[in-house]
Amino acid sequence: MDDFPDVLARAQHGDEGAFTVVFRAMQPMLLRYLTVLAGPAAADDLAAETWVAALRGLVKFRGNESDLRGWLVTIARARWVDMVRASARRPEELTDEPPEQRAADDVAAAVVERAASAEAIAMIARLPQEQAEIVTLRVVAQLEVAEVAEITGKTANHVRVLCHRGLRRLAAMLPAPGVMPALVSTMDES
Fold first, then answer.
1. 84 vs 96, which has greater pLDDT?
2. Please, is 132 exposed, middle or buried when counting C-beta atoms within 10 Å of its C-beta (0-12, 13-18, 19+)?
3. Nearest to residue 41, comparing CAs of 107, 94, 117, 91?
4. What is the mean pLDDT of residues 68-83?
5. For 125-154, what is the mean pLDDT?
6. Based on the domain organization, do 184 and 131 belong to the same domain?
7. Considering only CA atoms, which of 154, 121, 115, 146 is closest in space to residue 135?
8. Cα–Cα distance, 190 to 132 (Å, whole number)
9. More reliable by pLDDT, 181 or 163
10. What is the pLDDT of residues 48-63, one digit of tens each?
11. Do 127 and 71 fall into the same domain?
12. How many domains does the chain have?
């Protein structure tokens, strides 16, 4: 986002339109990350809790767009950890009724994008938990190795190894050879 500093500053001062721009830019990445961690059923709720917490601290936030992604993912991860701890103490109740959602403006494009995203997230979710989280943070959230290391409490080298192994596994899962190796080599350079 070219005008991110301006949009963020307006959002921090209560401009709902500016906050909507920030939300729309960050929400897809946040949902993908949480879907890998917690599954699709819990991702929306965790994202909502993340945004509530983020709203409380948005005025104090300082940084660029990448810093905001890292900050939101850190909040989301903390909410996920809380959910895991809470689920160990109480059982979950499931319902057959899906939530109602408004249609996107361009339905065809939204369907294609969601199908591709859903397939990619489903593949990432089949990785071992640590690899799935690291790949999601590096590739989906586009965070730097140092940011991922800080968020997950791992060393930068461990992050690189987990990302490399995860991307290699994803490459082996792909039906068409040659698609993922370019991504693997890009991530290896970081």
1. 84
2. buried
3. 94
4. 93
5. 90
6. yes
7. 121
8. 18
9. 163
10. 999 999 999 999 999 9
11. no
12. 2
- Both tokens of residue 8? 């963020």
One domain for residues 83 and 115: no
Q: Rounded CA gap, 34 and 64, in Å?
A: 22
- Are 79 and 163 contained in the same domain? no
Per-residue pLDDT at 93: 62
Residue 99, domain member (yes or no)? no
177 pLDDT band (50/70/90 cuts)?
low
Quote the pTM value. Answer: 0.61
The band of 44, judged by pLDDT with boundaries at 50, 70 and 90, is very high
How far apart CA 93 and CA 80 sit, in angstroms, is 17
Range of the domain at 12: 1-90
Would you say 147 and 66 are in contact if contact means Cβ atoms under 8 Å apart? yes
